[in-house]
Design goal:
285 residues; alpha/beta; Nitrilase/N-carbamoyl-D-aminoacid amidohydrolase; six-stranded mixed sheet; 6 helices; 16 strands; 28% strand
Length: 285
């Protein structure tokens, strides 16, 4: 069946350490007319807490359990509006601290992803690395893959999510200055090379000297981006996901003369080096 699912991304400013206020502002955005028809709404990385904490101790009081206050409030909002939501938060689990994003819907929490690639930046200097396998979540109308910010710099992550059957891959992010070329090129490349829909949702505003660069994007499997957020102002990006388009990886350009299938044409026997551990140590000086 050739169905489509409308989606939206909320590019917003976030106040560091103001969990309750940020969640309230996120919920208010759900009632924007541009978001009314969306069945999935995506918010930035660390949308609940903010990002630029200077120590684990400083961040810890703003981390929450799942379930907890933020997920409870967002779940009530999702139920009331019959939507699925993805949003970033700091997650506390025992004595572990994770940079996580949550997928929830009217029936409850669907999935949680913990960031596996950590840059030397903001709270990521102090959180624990995610260690759960990559997963794709089926919400009925489509299958969703989750990753966060710096994860998008590693094409292997997106390829695995595509191989697992994702129709849409979402990237809650906090792109800082210097990530301009990433924002310009990589979301489009990830969509094209995997023949998936890809939505990167960034934030704007200033936090402890970092002026976040916006430029959120909804990308088609062709690599084109019909909806792009402002580089400086809050924005809403929108689009529609057509699962039947991306589940057919066999692209016939000219019958009998030009066929592209980037999944079937892979040669994994040549990629063994990608799966080997390395001994490199990051210089954090």
């Amino acid at each position: 069946m050739n169905t489509q699912t409308p989606v939206a991304g909320i590019q917003m400013d976030i106040k560091l350490g103001d969990n309750a206020g940020n969640v309230s502002r996120m919920i208010a955005q759900l009632d924007d007319p541009q978001v009314a028809s969306a069945k999935l709404v995506v918010f930035p990385e660390c949308a609940v807490s903010g990002y630029c904490f200077d120590s684990r101790d400083e961040a810890w009081p703003h981390a929450e359990t799942i379930p907890g206050p933020a997920t409870t409030a967002m779940l009530a909002a999702a139920k009331a509006r019959d939507k699925h939501l993805v949003f970033g938060m700091l997650e506390r689990s025992g004595d572990q601290l994770y940079n996580s994003c949550v997928l929830l819907g009217p029936e409850g929490v669907v999935g949680v992803y913990r960031k596996i690639h950590l840059p030397f930046l903001g709270i990521d200097r102090f959180v624990d690395r995610g260690s759960e396998p990559l997963r794709v979540y089926d919400i009925g109308s489509m299958r969703i893959g989750l990753h966060i910010c710096y994860d998008g710099s590693f094409p292997e992550t997106v390829r695995v999510l595509a191989l697992l059957g994702a129709d849409l891959i979402v990237l809650p992010t906090n792109w800082p200055p210097g990530a301009d070329t990433f924002a310009e090129y990589l979301p489009n490349a990830r969509a094209l090379e995997n023949h998936v829909y890809y939505m990167a949702v960034n934030r704007v505003g200033e936090e402890r000297g970092f002026q976040f660069i916006g430029t959120s994007k909804f990308c088609l499997p062709s690599g084109r981006s019909p909806s792009v957020g402002s580089a400086t102002e809050p924005s809403i990006i929108t689009g529609s996901v057509h699962p039947h388009i991306v589940r057919n990886k066999r692209l016939v350009r000219i019958p009998g003369k030009h066929l592209i299938d980037r999944m079937a044409d892979r040669r994994p026997e040549f990629y063994g080096l990608l799966g080997q551990p390395h001994g490199l140590v990051r210089d954090e000086s």
